[in-house]
Amino acid sequence: MSEEIPGAEQPPPQAGPSEAAQAAFEACARLVLAGRYEEALTATEEAAGLFRERTAGSRPADREAAAALTYVLVLRCEALSKLGRWDECLRTASEAVDLGRGQAVTAPFTAPLGATLLGLGTALWGLGRPQEAVAVTRESVDLHRQLARADHAFRPQLANALSQLGVVLSRLGRHAEALDVTKESVSLYRRLVAADQAVHTHGLAQAVNNLARRQSARNQHRRALRSIQEAVALYRRLAAANPAVHRRDLAMALGNAARMHNGRAESLAAVAEAVAILEELDRAEPGVHGGLFADSLSLHAAALADLGRFREAAEVTTRAVAMMREQAALNPVARRGDLGVALAFHARVRAEAGLDLAEGLAAATEAVALMRGLAAEIPALYASSLAEVVALESRLRAAVPRGDAP
Q1: How many CA atoms lie within 13 A of 285 on its CB side?
Q2: For residue 405, is pLDDT > 80?
Q3: Which of the listed residues 185, 225, 269, 323 has the most CB atoms within 10 Å of its CB?
Q4: What is the pLDDT of residue 62?
Q5: pLDDT of 372 strictly over 90
Q6: Which residue ranges does the record annotate as region Disordered (predicted)?
Q7: How far apart (Å, rounded) are the C-alpha atoms in residues 314 and 28?
Q8: Within a 13 Å sphere around the CA of 382, how many CA atoms are in the beta-carbon half?
Q9: Which CATH class is domain 264-406?
Q10: 347 in Cβ contact with 326 (< 8 Å)
Q11: 179 vs 44: CA distance, rounded Å
């Protein structure tokens, strides 16, 4: 949860729909950009109804309205993804892709199809189906390359698609490929920011945050630290200007900074700030930020443990595991890895502290079961994690009296 597939970059719909439908589309876009996702769902439902009325029948004049409808569905998919409603997101994205494919041979449907493919990739990723997500996201990248070559106005969409492709490739352990496409995304965003800083800074921040993760996965630790420091600085500026939208992003980047700092005190400071932000956000919107919050709590526990503050760390991991179980209950397939990591932290802290060892053993055993399944599916990503948690389980089993072992 320390990175997220970037949100869609939508160009405005083509001319043609009625003023009411156009106004409805723009209202949807504003709500999504403002992070008001529940309101956006209502607005996108109303806008989709208006555009469907315009597309009824077979008049050529309705083609532009059909193209605009695909963008409304992309906006709806993005709102659903932010709320963790992945099954609905998949249905919405699939409808949008079907609409786009049915008309893609001629303008104006090529651009909407590229956007809908990104939405479908987001849904597949959220449902724990990264192989399928790679295929449709790569298709979106290819479409946006064609569009950007013909018209530089589509460079933001290409940069966004490349950043998303880097995320889904990384989830398959294909770190070298992921690093290459993420570098290309960052390069494009830097040129876009040079031309229009206000519009493209958020895209650059997302891409640089993801670049830090890609560099870390390739053991380029100094570069990763520089990248995440840049991402944090960018998100601080964005959060200062629009806290309602960007404080969550800042918390995510701070969590990554905690992973990448060499100093233990620096790591603790970064993740403590992230947790404080998420505590406040969770009070305002209970459950909405659960995955990221649980991940940040696990990082907080690890930072405390690294400083020898094991009892504090144990309390934090208990809360992190409880929150991650809630997330896994909502989305069991996609959250298996996150729950496994939270359980491994829970067990590790107890092993290091020498307290609640039976509980730690139970957590390690559960983590091993989760990691075995993941390592069988994606060995490049999970084999090393499985080996670590198996060793931890063995250590705890040797330390727990036979009568107390689960």
Answers
A1: 16
A2: no
A3: 185
A4: 66
A5: yes
A6: 1-20
A7: 43
A8: 22
A9: mainly alpha
A10: no
A11: 35
Joined tokens for residue 137: 């996201």
Q: For residue 149, count other CB atoms closer than 10 A to its CB.
A: 11
Domain ranges for the chain: 18-128, 129-237, 264-406
Separation of alpha carbons 20 and 131, rounded Å: 40
Shared fold status for 129-237 and 264-406: yes
List the one residue out of 234, 275, 279, 285 whose CA is nearest residue 255.
275
Angle value at C-alpha 132, between 65 and 63, nearest 5 degrees: 10
- The rounded distance, in Å, linking the Cα atoms of 139 and 385 is 31
Contact assessment for residue 374 and residue 390, using Cβ atoms and an 8 Å cutoff: no
Q: State the virtual CA torsion across 151, 141, 5, 37 in degrees, nearest 10.
A: 50
> How many whole angstroms separate alpha carbon 28 and alpha carbon 17?
15
Contact at 8 Å (CB) between 310 and 318? no
- CB of 154 closer than 8 Å to CB of 144: yes
Asked if pLDDT for residue 284 goes beyond 80, the answer is yes
404 contact partners, CB below 8 Å, separation of at least 6: 357, 358
Instruction: From the options 3.30.1330.10, 3.50.50.60, 1.20.120.450, 1.25.40.10, give the CATH code of 129-237.
Output: 1.25.40.10
pLDDT at 244: 85
**Lowest-pLDDT range of 32-46, 175-189, 212-226:** 32-46
Report the alpha-carbon distance of residue 69 to residue 63 in Å, rounded.
Answer: 10
Local structure of residue 287 (DSSP, 8 states) = T
**Average pLDDT over the chain, rounded to an integer:** 86
Q: List % helix, strand, coil for the chain (3-state, nearest 5).
A: 85, 0, 15
In this predicted structure, what is the pLDDT of residue 17? Answer: 46
Rounded to an integer, what is the distance from CA 23 to the centroid of its chain? Answer: 29
Q: 224: which 2 tokens? A: 């990763």
From its phi and psi, is residue 157 left (phi > 0), alpha (psi between -120 and 50) or beta?
A: alpha
Residue 25: what residue type? F
Output the DSSP codes for 111-134.
Answer: HHHHHHHHHHHHHHHHTT-HHHHH
Q: What value, to the nearest 5°, has the Cα angle with vertex 6 and ends 279 and 384? A: 75
Whole-number Å distance between alpha carbons of 220 and 302:
22
For residue 363, which amino acid is it?
Answer: A
